[in-house]
Amino acid sequence: MQTLELLFWLGTELAFLLCFFTAVYLTAVLVRQRRRLFLAILPVLILDYLSLQCVGMKLYQEVWPSAAGKAALWFLALPRPVFLLLCVGSGTAEFFLLRLARDYEKRQITSMSIKEATDDLPSGLCFYLHDGRVIMQNRAMEDFCYKTTGQFLLNGEEFCQRLFSGRLLPDSHRLVSGENPVILLPDDTVWSVSVRDIPYHQGTARMLMISNTTELYHRTLELREQQKKLEELNARLTRYNQDLVELTAKKERLHAKIMIHDTLGANLLSMKRYLLNGGTEDEKRELLGKLHLDMSFLRNDEAPSADDEYDLMLNTAEKLGVHVQISGTLPQTEPQKHLLAIAIHECFTNTLRHAHGDTLDLTISEENGLIRAVFTNNGIQPDGEIQEKGGLQSLRLLTDQCGGRMTIRSHPVFSITLEVPKESNHAI
Fold first, then answer.
1. pLDDT of amino acid 2
2. Of 284, 289, 336, residue with least CA distance to 310
3. I want to staple 328 with a disulfide (CB 3.0 to 4.6 A). Which of 2, 20, 285, 364 is the partner?
4. What does the alpha-carbon distance between residue 290 and residue 292 come to, in Å, rounded to a whole number?
5. Regarding beta strands 359-367 and 323-327, do their DSSP bridges make them parallel or antiparallel, or are they unpaired?
6. Could you tell me which of 176, 29, 197, 182 has the C-alpha nearest to residue 113?
7. Residue 126: which of 47, 69, 43, 209 has the closest Cα?
8. How far apart are CA 315 and CA 417, in angstroms?
């Protein structure tokens, strides 16, 4: 065989070989797409195969006396333009079929397109039957399975049980158990696990999903740390408020003792005048009441210590001669407790100073998520509207800061009403 003849048949062999493998690829793609178009590629595939075999027999000078050999000789006896036409036609047909297959992949949703789309998801997905057979899994789930178990995902049910039971590699940790476990991987990423049943054909399958919650987890840790600091700050503020209330109470007792000291001389003179000149029984009872109050203050230099704000306020009021009658239950949560303690202090102080009474009534009730406290006294009722200043102004400001409302009425009976939310997000 001459050199040019050999090169021609060799080139033809390579061309048909390329066409044959292209036809095989197209057949696989079309079968995967479950399209009947794959029937159109079968004649091309067969033609390429036969051409490949015949040219190969010619190239290696394999001439058999069999029918196949005769067919090959007949085929090879065709003019050379026919071979070129077959090669070009086969390649052209494969080219157009390949374009159709690629366009179909882009336009239609196929099982492969779904797999490619799920592989790009940052979350991990695994669909499996109840016996553990895996239907589909994406790349994120494959990586997650290998990092947590050191094995490839072959049984979905077994892998799910390992996640929920915490049987993982030593460098992977289950942070949270329960219906939605949280797994910490060696690369410091945190994943939340969930599983649920989904419809599948005539029955159901299970979907195992993992979501990257690393940022949420670290934000939660930061919030917990901040909450801990706020609790410590709240505790310090509570102690500070208790000290402040105790200091204020001492100041009020000192002020009361100074008043009594100033009036004690006048009371003694009144007693002397009564003893020398006499008087009525009403004057006698009034004088004895004043002296009894004065002596009770002088006998008690300090009020008994009390750790509770309510006890401190009530003890102070009793020492100053004001009896506090409480109807209802005092709130024990902050800042409601601190607000009521300050209100008791302000009201019994005003009862003693301005109304000249000795009884303070406090009625506490709850309605529509609000704590309602009403203060009244048995002292002298005011003639006009009360001007808020000093303690009342501070009490209103504190009530507003607690998200509540303060109301003052002068008629028909003087009263102060505080309404604060039962549940409050405010610190003290």
1. 58
2. 336
3. 364
4. 5
5. parallel
6. 29
7. 209
8. 23
Predicted confidence (pLDDT) per residue in 345-380, tens digit: 888 888 887 888 889 999 999 988 899 999 999 988
Beta bridge partners, 421, equal: 370
Residue with tokens 């009425």: 409
As a whole number of angstroms, the distance between CA 374 and CA 419 comes to: 9
Amino acid at 173: H
The model's confidence at residue 427, banded by pLDDT at 50, 70 and 90, is very low
CA distance 256 to 353: 9
Residue type for position 248: T
pLDDT at 385: 79
End-to-end CA distance of the chain: 105
- Taking all residues of the chain, what is their mean pLDDT, rounded to a whole number? 79
Q: CB count, 10 Å around CB of 219?
A: 11
Say if CB 418 and CB 404 are below 8 A apart: yes
Output phi, psi for 49, to 5 deg: -65, -45
Provide the 10 A C-beta neighbour count for residue 163.
Answer: 22
For the chain, the residue count is 428
Answer positive or negative: Cα dihedral of 46, 49, 55, 56: negative
Cβ within 8 Å of residue 235, ≥6 positions away: none
| List of residues 6+ apart from 89 with CB closer than 8 A | none
Per-residue pLDDT at 303 exceeds 50: no
DSSP-assigned letter for residue 154: -
